[in-house]
Amino acid sequence: PIVSMRQLLDHAAENGYGLPAFNVNNLEQVQAIMEAAAEVDSPVIMQASAGARRYAGEAFLRHLIEAAVEAYPDIPIVMHQDHGQSPAVCMSAIRSGFSSVMMDGSLLPDGKTAADYDYNVEVTKEVVKFSHAVGVTVEAELGVLGSLETMKADKEDGIGAEGTMTREQLLTNPDQAVDFVAQTQCDALAIAIGTSHGAYKFTRKPTGDILAIDRLKEIHARLPNTHLVMHGSSSVPQELLALIREYGGDIRETYGVPVEELQESIKFGVRKINIDTDIRLAMTAAIRRYLMQNPSHFDPREYLKAAKEEAKKMCISRYVAFGSAGQA
Ligand code: G3H
Ligand code: 13P
Ligand code: NA
Ligand code: ZN
After folding, report:
1. Are the beta carbons of 102 and 84 closer than 8 angstroms?
2. If residue 50 lies in a helix (H) or strand (E), which one and from where to where?
3. Sign of the C-alpha dihedral computed for residues 83, 85, 89 and 94 taken in this order
4. Nearest C-alpha to atom 9 of ligand 1 is from which residue?
5. What ipTM does this complex have?
6. What domains can you pick out in the chain, each with its CATH number?
7. 23 lines ligand 1 (CB under 6 A)
8. What pTM, to 2 d.p., does this model score?
9. Residue 247 contacts by C-beta under 8 Å, 6 or more apart in sequence?
10. Could you identify the atom of ligand 1 that is nearest to the CA of residue 55?
11. Distance CA 141, CA 152 (A)
Protein backbone atom coordinates (compact mmCIF):
# COMPACT_ATOMS: atom_id res chain seq x y z
CA PRO A 1 0.00 0.00 0.00
CA ILE A 2 0.94 3.70 -0.26
CA VAL A 3 2.21 4.74 3.16
CA SER A 4 3.27 8.00 4.68
CA MET A 5 6.94 8.91 4.42
CA ARG A 6 6.87 10.13 8.02
CA GLN A 7 5.73 6.70 9.23
CA LEU A 8 8.37 4.94 7.21
CA LEU A 9 11.18 7.24 8.37
CA ASP A 10 10.00 7.00 11.98
CA HIS A 11 10.18 3.21 11.71
CA ALA A 12 13.65 3.46 10.18
CA ALA A 13 14.79 5.71 13.04
CA GLU A 14 13.35 3.42 15.70
CA ASN A 15 15.06 0.44 14.14
CA GLY A 16 18.31 2.12 13.08
CA TYR A 17 18.22 1.64 9.34
CA GLY A 18 18.21 3.82 6.23
CA LEU A 19 16.10 3.75 3.07
CA PRO A 20 17.32 4.28 -0.45
CA ALA A 21 15.05 6.71 -2.31
CA PHE A 22 15.28 5.87 -5.98
CA ASN A 23 14.34 8.26 -8.78
CA VAL A 24 11.94 6.88 -11.37
CA ASN A 25 11.12 7.96 -14.90
CA ASN A 26 9.88 4.85 -16.67
CA LEU A 27 8.39 1.36 -16.41
CA GLU A 28 11.61 -0.63 -16.20
CA GLN A 29 12.98 1.50 -13.33
CA VAL A 30 9.76 1.05 -11.34
CA GLN A 31 9.86 -2.70 -12.00
CA ALA A 32 13.52 -3.01 -11.03
CA ILE A 33 12.97 -1.19 -7.74
CA MET A 34 9.86 -3.25 -6.92
CA GLU A 35 11.28 -6.63 -7.90
CA ALA A 36 14.34 -5.91 -5.79
CA ALA A 37 12.22 -4.84 -2.81
CA ALA A 38 10.05 -7.94 -3.09
CA GLU A 39 13.09 -10.17 -3.21
CA VAL A 40 14.59 -8.77 0.01
CA ASP A 41 11.40 -7.61 1.72
CA SER A 42 12.16 -3.89 1.86
CA PRO A 43 9.81 -0.92 2.01
CA VAL A 44 10.15 1.39 -1.01
CA ILE A 45 10.58 5.09 -1.64
CA MET A 46 10.12 6.03 -5.27
CA GLN A 47 10.62 9.65 -6.18
CA ALA A 48 9.90 11.72 -9.25
CA SER A 49 11.67 14.92 -10.19
CA ALA A 50 10.15 17.71 -12.23
CA GLY A 51 12.19 16.29 -15.11
CA ALA A 52 10.59 12.87 -14.59
CA ARG A 53 7.13 14.36 -14.73
CA ARG A 54 8.09 16.22 -17.91
CA TYR A 55 9.58 13.06 -19.44
CA ALA A 56 6.83 10.57 -18.67
CA GLY A 57 3.91 12.92 -18.19
CA GLU A 58 2.18 13.25 -14.88
CA ALA A 59 -0.51 10.65 -15.61
CA PHE A 60 1.91 7.98 -16.81
CA LEU A 61 4.14 8.45 -13.81
CA ARG A 62 1.28 8.34 -11.34
CA HIS A 63 -0.21 5.22 -12.91
CA LEU A 64 3.18 3.49 -13.04
CA ILE A 65 3.52 3.91 -9.30
CA GLU A 66 -0.11 2.96 -8.74
CA ALA A 67 0.58 -0.16 -10.79
CA ALA A 68 3.43 -0.97 -8.42
CA VAL A 69 1.08 -0.61 -5.47
CA GLU A 70 -1.42 -2.93 -7.13
CA ALA A 71 1.17 -5.51 -8.16
CA TYR A 72 2.87 -5.55 -4.75
CA PRO A 73 0.07 -5.12 -2.19
CA ASP A 74 2.25 -6.21 0.72
CA ILE A 75 5.09 -3.74 0.22
CA PRO A 76 4.84 -0.30 1.83
CA ILE A 77 5.48 2.31 -0.89
CA VAL A 78 6.07 6.04 -0.62
CA MET A 79 5.52 8.16 -3.69
CA HIS A 80 7.63 11.29 -3.22
CA GLN A 81 8.06 14.50 -5.20
CA ASP A 82 11.83 15.12 -5.49
CA HIS A 83 13.13 18.73 -5.56
CA GLY A 84 9.78 20.53 -5.69
CA GLN A 85 10.69 23.97 -7.01
CA SER A 86 7.73 25.88 -5.63
CA PRO A 87 4.71 25.45 -3.39
CA ALA A 88 2.62 25.12 -6.57
CA VAL A 89 4.65 22.12 -7.74
CA CYS A 90 4.23 20.47 -4.33
CA MET A 91 0.51 21.18 -4.36
CA SER A 92 0.06 19.59 -7.77
CA ALA A 93 2.06 16.54 -6.68
CA ILE A 94 -0.24 16.11 -3.69
CA ARG A 95 -3.28 16.42 -5.95
CA SER A 96 -1.91 13.66 -8.13
CA GLY A 97 -1.51 11.31 -5.15
CA PHE A 98 2.03 11.74 -3.85
CA SER A 99 2.28 10.94 -0.14
CA SER A 100 5.38 13.03 0.38
CA VAL A 101 6.88 16.17 -1.14
CA MET A 102 10.20 17.91 -1.10
CA MET A 103 10.06 21.68 -1.08
CA ASP A 104 13.56 22.63 -2.18
CA GLY A 105 13.56 26.22 -1.02
CA SER A 106 17.34 26.29 -1.06
CA LEU A 107 16.82 27.24 -4.70
CA LEU A 108 14.57 29.81 -6.38
CA PRO A 109 11.76 28.43 -8.61
CA ASP A 110 14.09 28.49 -11.64
CA GLY A 111 15.83 25.53 -10.00
CA LYS A 112 19.27 27.02 -10.50
CA THR A 113 19.64 30.15 -8.40
CA ALA A 114 20.51 29.84 -4.71
CA ALA A 115 17.77 31.32 -2.55
CA ASP A 116 18.25 33.23 0.67
CA TYR A 117 17.39 31.80 4.07
CA ASP A 118 14.22 33.83 4.63
CA TYR A 119 12.78 32.72 1.30
CA ASN A 120 13.53 29.09 2.16
CA VAL A 121 11.80 29.40 5.56
CA GLU A 122 8.79 31.11 4.03
CA VAL A 123 8.08 28.65 1.20
CA THR A 124 8.82 25.60 3.35
CA LYS A 125 6.41 26.83 6.03
CA GLU A 126 3.72 27.30 3.42
CA VAL A 127 4.18 23.78 2.04
CA VAL A 128 4.21 22.25 5.54
CA LYS A 129 0.92 23.98 6.29
CA PHE A 130 -1.04 22.57 3.36
CA SER A 131 0.76 19.21 3.32
CA HIS A 132 0.33 18.36 6.98
CA ALA A 133 -3.34 19.26 6.71
CA VAL A 134 -3.75 16.25 4.41
CA GLY A 135 -1.21 13.92 6.02
CA VAL A 136 1.56 14.47 3.50
CA THR A 137 5.17 14.47 4.70
CA VAL A 138 7.51 17.36 3.88
CA GLU A 139 11.22 17.20 3.15
CA ALA A 140 13.10 20.50 3.02
CA GLU A 141 16.70 21.36 2.14
CA LEU A 142 19.14 23.66 3.85
CA GLY A 143 22.56 24.30 2.42
CA VAL A 144 24.61 24.14 -0.74
CA LEU A 145 25.59 20.67 -1.88
CA GLY A 146 29.13 20.35 -3.08
CA SER A 147 32.27 18.27 -2.97
CA LEU A 148 34.79 18.73 -0.15
CA GLU A 149 37.45 17.35 -2.49
CA THR A 150 37.05 19.82 -5.34
CA MET A 151 35.44 22.52 -3.17
CA LYS A 152 32.95 23.14 -5.93
CA ALA A 153 29.23 23.54 -5.45
CA ASP A 154 26.83 21.15 -7.13
CA LYS A 155 25.80 22.56 -10.50
CA GLU A 156 22.18 22.14 -9.45
CA ASP A 157 22.77 24.25 -6.39
CA GLY A 158 22.75 27.64 -7.96
CA ILE A 159 26.20 28.81 -7.06
CA GLY A 160 27.74 27.91 -10.38
CA ALA A 161 30.42 25.28 -10.67
CA GLU A 162 33.12 27.87 -11.53
CA GLY A 163 33.71 29.38 -8.14
CA THR A 164 35.60 27.62 -5.39
CA MET A 165 33.73 27.54 -2.10
CA THR A 166 34.95 27.50 1.46
CA ARG A 167 34.38 24.37 3.56
CA GLU A 168 31.91 26.26 5.73
CA GLN A 169 29.88 27.32 2.67
CA LEU A 170 29.55 23.68 1.64
CA LEU A 171 28.23 22.45 5.00
CA THR A 172 24.79 22.95 6.51
CA ASN A 173 25.08 25.24 9.54
CA PRO A 174 23.78 23.52 12.70
CA ASP A 175 22.43 26.70 14.38
CA GLN A 176 20.58 27.58 11.20
CA ALA A 177 19.26 24.01 10.91
CA VAL A 178 17.82 24.17 14.43
CA ASP A 179 16.15 27.50 13.72
CA PHE A 180 14.91 26.27 10.32
CA VAL A 181 13.23 23.18 11.70
CA ALA A 182 11.69 25.11 14.61
CA GLN A 183 10.22 27.64 12.22
CA THR A 184 9.07 25.33 9.44
CA GLN A 185 8.22 22.08 11.26
CA CYS A 186 9.43 20.05 8.28
CA ASP A 187 9.58 16.28 8.81
CA ALA A 188 12.84 15.60 7.04
CA LEU A 189 15.80 17.81 6.24
CA ALA A 190 18.23 17.41 3.37
CA ILE A 191 21.65 18.58 4.45
CA ALA A 192 24.95 19.41 2.79
CA ILE A 193 27.86 17.36 4.17
CA GLY A 194 29.94 16.76 1.07
CA THR A 195 27.71 14.95 -1.42
CA SER A 196 26.70 16.38 -4.78
CA HIS A 197 24.40 15.34 -7.61
CA GLY A 198 25.41 13.42 -10.69
CA ALA A 199 28.18 11.05 -11.77
CA TYR A 200 31.11 13.43 -11.28
CA LYS A 201 31.42 13.77 -7.52
CA PHE A 202 35.10 13.10 -6.85
CA THR A 203 38.13 13.02 -9.14
CA ARG A 204 40.05 10.54 -6.95
CA LYS A 205 39.03 7.43 -5.07
CA PRO A 206 37.61 8.73 -1.75
CA THR A 207 39.74 7.81 1.25
CA GLY A 208 37.20 7.72 4.07
CA ASP A 209 36.96 11.35 5.19
CA ILE A 210 35.11 12.54 2.14
CA LEU A 211 31.90 13.35 4.03
CA ALA A 212 31.75 15.72 7.01
CA ILE A 213 30.54 13.08 9.47
CA ASP A 214 31.35 15.35 12.45
CA ARG A 215 29.00 17.96 11.07
CA LEU A 216 26.33 15.31 10.55
CA LYS A 217 26.76 14.13 14.17
CA GLU A 218 26.34 17.68 15.44
CA ILE A 219 23.18 18.31 13.39
CA HIS A 220 21.71 14.96 14.45
CA ALA A 221 22.50 15.57 18.13
CA ARG A 222 20.66 18.89 18.02
CA LEU A 223 17.74 17.71 15.86
CA PRO A 224 17.18 14.13 17.04
CA ASN A 225 13.57 14.08 15.84
CA THR A 226 14.22 15.38 12.33
CA HIS A 227 14.97 12.73 9.77
CA LEU A 228 18.06 13.67 7.78
CA VAL A 229 18.26 13.18 4.04
CA MET A 230 21.30 12.81 1.84
CA HIS A 231 21.01 13.83 -1.77
CA GLY A 232 23.71 12.96 -4.26
CA SER A 233 24.26 9.54 -2.71
CA SER A 234 25.13 7.44 -5.73
CA SER A 235 28.26 5.35 -5.35
CA VAL A 236 29.16 5.40 -9.06
CA PRO A 237 30.32 1.75 -9.09
CA GLN A 238 33.62 1.34 -10.93
CA GLU A 239 32.44 -2.02 -12.41
CA LEU A 240 29.57 -0.22 -14.17
CA LEU A 241 31.90 2.47 -15.52
CA ALA A 242 34.21 -0.29 -16.75
CA LEU A 243 31.32 -2.00 -18.59
CA ILE A 244 30.17 1.25 -20.15
CA ARG A 245 33.70 1.93 -21.40
CA GLU A 246 34.22 -1.65 -22.57
CA TYR A 247 31.08 -1.44 -24.70
CA GLY A 248 31.79 1.84 -26.42
CA GLY A 249 30.85 4.46 -23.83
CA ASP A 250 33.03 7.40 -22.94
CA ILE A 251 32.94 8.40 -19.28
CA ARG A 252 35.96 10.02 -17.70
CA GLU A 253 37.49 8.86 -14.41
CA THR A 254 35.13 9.64 -11.57
CA TYR A 255 34.07 8.40 -8.12
CA GLY A 256 30.92 8.50 -6.02
CA VAL A 257 30.13 8.13 -2.33
CA PRO A 258 31.36 4.77 -1.03
CA VAL A 259 28.59 2.57 0.37
CA GLU A 260 30.51 2.38 3.70
CA GLU A 261 30.24 6.18 4.05
CA LEU A 262 26.48 5.93 3.49
CA GLN A 263 26.31 3.19 6.14
CA GLU A 264 28.25 5.41 8.57
CA SER A 265 25.83 8.28 7.97
CA ILE A 266 22.87 6.04 8.83
CA LYS A 267 24.33 5.73 12.35
CA PHE A 268 23.84 9.48 12.77
CA GLY A 269 20.29 10.13 11.67
CA VAL A 270 20.37 9.84 7.89
CA ARG A 271 17.21 7.92 6.97
CA LYS A 272 16.60 8.75 3.31
CA ILE A 273 19.40 8.29 0.81
CA ASN A 274 18.75 9.59 -2.69
CA ILE A 275 19.99 7.55 -5.63
CA ASP A 276 19.42 8.31 -9.30
CA THR A 277 22.79 8.19 -11.07
CA ASP A 278 23.54 4.57 -10.08
CA ILE A 279 20.34 3.35 -11.76
CA ARG A 280 21.22 5.35 -14.86
CA LEU A 281 24.70 3.81 -14.96
CA ALA A 282 23.39 0.28 -14.38
CA MET A 283 20.85 0.50 -17.19
CA THR A 284 23.25 2.11 -19.62
CA ALA A 285 25.95 -0.48 -18.94
CA ALA A 286 23.50 -3.34 -19.48
CA ILE A 287 22.00 -1.88 -22.66
CA ARG A 288 25.40 -1.16 -24.18
CA ARG A 289 26.58 -4.68 -23.38
CA TYR A 290 23.40 -6.32 -24.65
CA LEU A 291 23.37 -4.48 -27.97
CA MET A 292 27.09 -4.99 -28.61
CA GLN A 293 26.82 -8.71 -27.78
CA ASN A 294 23.65 -9.16 -29.81
CA PRO A 295 24.04 -6.88 -32.83
CA SER A 296 21.19 -8.45 -34.76
CA HIS A 297 18.57 -8.10 -32.01
CA PHE A 298 16.08 -5.27 -32.16
CA ASP A 299 13.25 -6.12 -29.74
CA PRO A 300 13.38 -3.42 -27.03
CA ARG A 301 12.05 -5.93 -24.49
CA GLU A 302 15.32 -7.79 -24.70
CA TYR A 303 17.71 -4.95 -23.95
CA LEU A 304 15.30 -3.29 -21.52
CA LYS A 305 15.05 -6.55 -19.61
CA ALA A 306 18.84 -6.61 -19.39
CA ALA A 307 18.75 -3.01 -18.14
CA LYS A 308 16.11 -3.86 -15.58
CA GLU A 309 18.09 -6.82 -14.27
CA GLU A 310 21.25 -4.73 -13.78
CA ALA A 311 19.28 -1.96 -12.02
CA LYS A 312 17.58 -4.56 -9.85
CA LYS A 313 20.93 -5.95 -8.67
CA MET A 314 22.04 -2.45 -7.66
CA CYS A 315 18.76 -1.83 -5.79
CA ILE A 316 19.05 -5.10 -3.89
CA SER A 317 22.57 -4.29 -2.79
CA ARG A 318 21.48 -0.87 -1.43
CA TYR A 319 18.44 -2.30 0.41
CA VAL A 320 20.74 -4.82 2.05
CA ALA A 321 23.56 -2.35 2.78
CA PHE A 322 21.26 0.27 4.34
CA GLY A 323 19.38 -2.29 6.44
CA SER A 324 15.91 -1.76 4.96
CA ALA A 325 15.90 -5.37 3.73
CA GLY A 326 13.60 -7.41 5.95
CA GLN A 327 11.71 -4.34 7.20
CA ALA A 328 8.67 -4.37 4.87
O1 G3H B 1 18.22 15.57 -8.05
C2 G3H B 1 18.16 15.28 -9.25
C3 G3H B 1 17.76 13.90 -9.66
O4 G3H B 1 18.90 13.16 -9.99
C5 G3H B 1 16.76 13.99 -10.77
O6 G3H B 1 17.37 14.31 -11.98
O7 G3H B 1 16.08 16.29 -12.77
O8 G3H B 1 17.38 14.84 -14.37
O9 G3H B 1 15.26 14.00 -13.31
P10 G3H B 1 16.47 14.90 -13.18
P1 13P C 1 22.71 11.02 -7.41
O2 13P C 1 22.95 11.88 -8.60
O3 13P C 1 23.96 10.88 -6.59
O4 13P C 1 22.13 9.71 -7.75
O5 13P C 1 21.66 11.79 -6.47
C6 13P C 1 20.28 11.77 -6.74
C7 13P C 1 19.49 12.74 -5.93
O8 13P C 1 19.95 13.34 -4.97
C9 13P C 1 18.09 12.96 -6.33
O10 13P C 1 17.45 13.95 -5.57
NA1 NA D 1 20.73 23.40 -1.86
ZN1 ZN E 1 18.63 15.63 -5.03
Report:
1. yes
2. helix 50-56
3. positive
4. 51
5. 0.98
6. 5-322 (3.20.20.70)
7. yes
8. 0.97
9. 285, 288, 289, 291, 292
10. 9
11. 18
